[in-house]
Design a protein that fits this description.
By secondary structure, the chain is mostly helical. The protein has a single domain, classed as Hypothetical protein af1432 (Orthogonal Bundle), CATH 1.10.3210. The protein is 73% helix and 0% strand. The protein has 14 helices and no strands. It has helices at residues 2-9, 11-109, 113-128, 133-142, 155-158, 166-173, 175-182, 189-200, 221-235, 247-256, 264-272, 274-287, 293-297, 301-311. The longest helix has 99 residues, at 11-109.
Length: 312
């Protein structure tokens, strides 16, 4: 109360007191504004830093993405190059094996005709048995190698005019095993099929075949198909130890071996299509007047594959 009275008596004291209050409030406001300004400045600096960091990260990501694109392009190029080289190697390998099969056929059959006919019989019979055109084409390419193991059998035994001794017969039967060994390194499906055919085309439905004595459906389907195709052509061609048989005689022998040597259901299918098999043989004989055996095996397959497609 005394203080208030003093202020009334001395107005300057009141003004001074109010000025001091205003000064304190203004000072507080300034300090608060400075803090806010400083905080805003710090926030601005932080935002600038974030923006700079983001820009650097984006640039780094762009650089990384660009580097990845280049690496991906190079990788695709290398993969394509490797695939091309692998395809070329596979083609060269199969070409070598095919020539070896042809050499084995010349060694055994003198003319090389057998593998041409046998492979086409096999391909067509496979279509009749429900295989796709793609699968039949693989069988067409694989079948010529069924007797490739005969390259390891003495020619004197293969072309002996008389009956073979027990020892000679055992040597001939080893050609299936030799063929399997020659094709053991096969990496393609076609050559894998070739190995399977080489090992099983002399197995019998009744289990009395060789080399493993397989029976019934334990014999791979391609082996059962090749067995009929192989015997059909072997019976109808001339050999040093026998004359050729007519198609009808060969058919009767195959009928007789139904359920013994051959899959009975396949024999039934084969019998229904005899006229087509005769045509295949006739067409090959016409081609032999114009082309070499290797050309028929390789270049002339395109037309036959087209024909298979129409028959499927």
């Amino acid at each position: 109360m005394a203080e208030d009275m003093n202020d009334l008596e001395c107005p300057d004291n009141l003004l001074n007191r109010q000025a001091l209050i205003y000064a304190k409030e203004l000072s507080a406001m300034v300090r608060s504004e400075r803090r806010a300004t400083q905080m805003l400045k710090q926030a601005e600096e932080q935002l600038v830093k974030y923006a700079t960091d983001f820009s650097n990260i984006s640039k780094k990501n762009r650089d990384q993405n660009h580097a990845l694109e280049i690496a991906n392009f190079q990788l695709k190029h290398y993969i394509t190059s490797i695939e091309d080289k692998n395809a070329a190697l596979a083609e060269a390998y199969q070409g070598t094996i095919t020539c070896l099969a042809l050499a084995a056929d010349f060694k055994d059959h003198c003319t090389g005709d057998h593998i041409v006919r046998m492979s086409r019989y096999s391909a067509y019979l496979s279509i009749c048995c429900g295989f796709s055109v793609k699968e039949a084409t693989q069988i067409l390419n694989a079948s010529p190698m069924h007797d490739i193991g005969k390259i390891g059998i003495p020619e004197a035994i293969l072309n002996k005019p008389g009956a073979l001794s027990v020892d000679e017969r055992e040597q001939v039967e080893k050609h299936t095993v030799y063929g399997g060994e020659i094709l053991l390194a096969a990496s393609s499906r076609t050559l894998g099929l070739a190995r399977k055919i080489a090992l099983t085309h002399h197995e019998r439905w009744d289990g009395k075949g060789y080399p493993r004595g397989l029976s019934g459906t334990n014999i791979p389907k391609v082996g059962r198909i090749a067995a009929i195709a192989d015997v059909l052509d072997a019976l109808t061609m001339k050999r040093p130890y026998k004359e050729s048989m007519s198609f009808d005689t060969a058919i009767n022998i195959i009928k007789r071996e139904k359920g013994l040597m051959f899959d009975p259901s396949m024999v039934d299918i084969f019998i229904k299509k005899i006229d087509v098999f005769k045509k295949i043989k006739s067409d090959i004989e016409d081609q032999e007047e114009k082309y070499s055996k290797l050309e028929i095996l390789d270049h002339n397959k395109t037309g036959f594959i087209g024909w298979l497609s129409n028959m499927a």
